[in-house]
Sequence to fold (206 residues):
Amino acid sequence: MRAGKPPSVWIDDRHAIVRRGMAACLQQSGFVVRGESGGLAPEPNLTGLDVLVFEAEGAALRRAVRLITGSPTKLVATVREPTEQQVREIVDAGVGAVLPHDGLTPEKLVASVRAVVAGAVALPGDLLTRLLAHVVKASNLGPGGLNDRERSVLRLLADGHDTRGIAEDLRFSERTVKNVVHDVLTKLNARTRAQAVALATREGAI
Fold:
């Protein structure tokens, strides 16, 4: 997102009433809704788009990831009845936020999209615990595996803080925060911040 520009969003959902509701909430909070689709048809125009909010059903996750490959557009997934496998796949794909339809409020939608725009993650605590054991087995997390600084950064990531917010809270430089995040991802064998937060939460490291 360019400085001074309101964040832009594309909304995808099978149901027009859901799309219109999400669009209204985001527009009232200063977002620019660039378009709507159902089942990613018509295909979203990603030129200059900050966030694609899409319904992660069927093959939509793979299509959404393919669409944004090579672009700075970030993903927010909505799910109707999340399963362990679905949440695992969403997190592994690098999606920045997972929003179950059940219990979704205007406030949660706006806060989650804002967090993703800022480079943070937004994963509800009850969904974090759904990640499968294979993620844990694939990691290098063990007793003493994360130091105090790394755990502090992860806790703030889990709370939705972006790099700048973490730097201000911990009185680090933004470069230091980025380096710590890189080290955490390496230690946890995680590809994304969302996956690192989910794994660390599951293991009780944060």
